[in-house]
Amino acid sequence: MSETMIEQNETSDQGAWGAVLSMSLCVAMLIASEFMPVSLLTPMAEGLGATTGQTGQAISVSGLFAVATSLLITTVAGRVNRKVVLVGLTALMLLSLVLVAIAPSFAVLMAGRALLGVCVGGFWSLATSILMRLVPKHEVPRALGLMYGGQAIAAAFAAPLGSYLGDIVGWRGVFWALTPVVALNLVWHLVALPSLPVETRASFGTFGTLLRRRYFLRGLVAITFTWGSAFTMFTYLRPFLEDVTGVGVDALSALLLVLGGSGFIGSSLAGRMVGGRIERMLCLPALVMGACTAALLLIGNSVIATAALLAIWGAMNTAMSVIWMSWMSRNVDDLPEAAGGLMVAVIQASILLGGVIGGFLLDLLSIRATFAGGVVLALVALALTGDGRHLLNPDKET
């Protein structure tokens, strides 16, 4: 191979990883925009004159639109260049932040959250399949780990900063602060992402083909309870920390920083540890996160114990996405966009389910009941996942 060809390959590799980094920042902004209200739930409820449970459920409306978009994006977008689609979704995210920041009522708030749901569903449906085109197959877990590092960044800084800044500039000011970063990311997409023409157009019949694969359908059911458990707890974490752990704004911000900061460890380790035996890792998210939630019910009144448990929970939270998306990339690599759409639809429906169940238990009983509900869902997820072997494509070597 000539020196010129080597230099061209190195330039191509650098450009591919630059595009991955651009997507990682987009992930960070999506996560910050979608889950920032977790750290602002109490003041948002007060500002809009609603209960905490009602506000949590209203915020979760983004999940409903994410579900619809994830199922429609590959068919509605048709043969539109995927770079154009990602740029358009990022522009919608910018608009949604402005709407939430100026929201004078629940109607406008929900409109902004609905637009955000479109962005979330569209981006996540295409993200893994795009990474599979940007980097070599053996580098996909690493690229996923890097992209989900954006999730860790958001979890590490968005929630505690949101809690801290919300006390200074108000919850609306926090959402305004996100807009220039999203605008910058929009420009980065335009520069870094290569042209991504669509090779084959998916149809609704493609979803039927996937759902007839029993191993994939079983995986979707396991994912439902895994994410549902996580977000029954996570959506209502602030009320738990305020009422049970008994922390103020400063300690709350510190605990959220611990939870998010540990996500760096989770995404980094998962990207490196996902090996040939992916099925052995599928049960870990429900097992570890469910156990942490159960432990919080027992010793959540201790700030130190709570910090330790949130660190473990946060690390597994980011690892969870890398693990399950790696499973998808290896077992459904012939239809990655359609598979990604179905997975995102199920994940977003599960997040919505967690918000609704958690809010219902909180308003009807107590925050402890909300966390107990999350533990029950984790146990169901564990039973469905088992050793993971029944979730593998029988036509592939493992």
UniProtKB/TrEMBL annotation:
Gene3D superfamilies to which the protein is assigned, alphabetical: MFS general substrate transporter like domains
Q: Which Pfam families match?
A: MFS_1 (PF07690)
Domain Major facilitator superfamily (MFS) profile per the UniProt entry, residue ranges: 1-390
What membrane topology does this protein have?
Multi-pass membrane protein
Compartments annotated for it: namely: Cell membrane
Q: Where's it mainly located?
A: membrane
Protein name per its UniProtKB record = Arabinose efflux permease family protein
Q: Which organism is it from?
A: Salipiger profundus
